[in-house]
Amino acid sequence: TKRTMNLEDIDHEDGSDNTAGIGQDIWVAKLADIATLPTPQLDDSAGTGNFSQLVTISDNIVMKSGKVFNKIRVTLETSALNGDIQGNMDGKSFKNAISGQIPGNKAKALGFLQWAKNSSLIAIIEELDGQVRILGHRAYPATLPAGSANTGAKTTDDRAVKFTLESVRKGPAPVFTGKVVLTGGAVGSGSFDANNNTYQDIEFVSGS
Asked: Which candidate, 38, 13, 127, 28, places its Cα nearest to that of 70?
């Protein structure tokens, strides 16, 4: 039986918010530290379902014992998540990338560049409207194709560590509506709120 996905109306409500940009924190974990990394509800564009299911991950991410997502603070309005179609006819995919700019040249940020250059990562990004996105997956984790550390020449120049994480998949970086489950007594790092187990719209919960 041939399966087909029906075309859907895509509307935009007049007067609704559409503020561009991402939040000032990017959350990053090593792929090897994640026990369960779910996939979108519908991972086949030729299947039956709806457009949203193709890019929505609703199941929970489960971390290995004691492991967490770590926070990278970036300068507002210097970072963006982009998804672009690439490839030839009948073989197209999406290259998804997050660019980030860490203020200053602190040793920890410089060390991150050195460590991440050959690392397999998963990143969680929150858009300014609260929508949460995931970059990277088991088959093609996020990697670091570009990075720089600059002092600047003039006092008005950027003094910053800049980096790009990118991954390739069949569509844009998915929307994440699940939770991050921490195990082995781990607690979230950075701005994790231990009182209500949330960081903005990213929810961390304790597991067995």
From this structure: 28
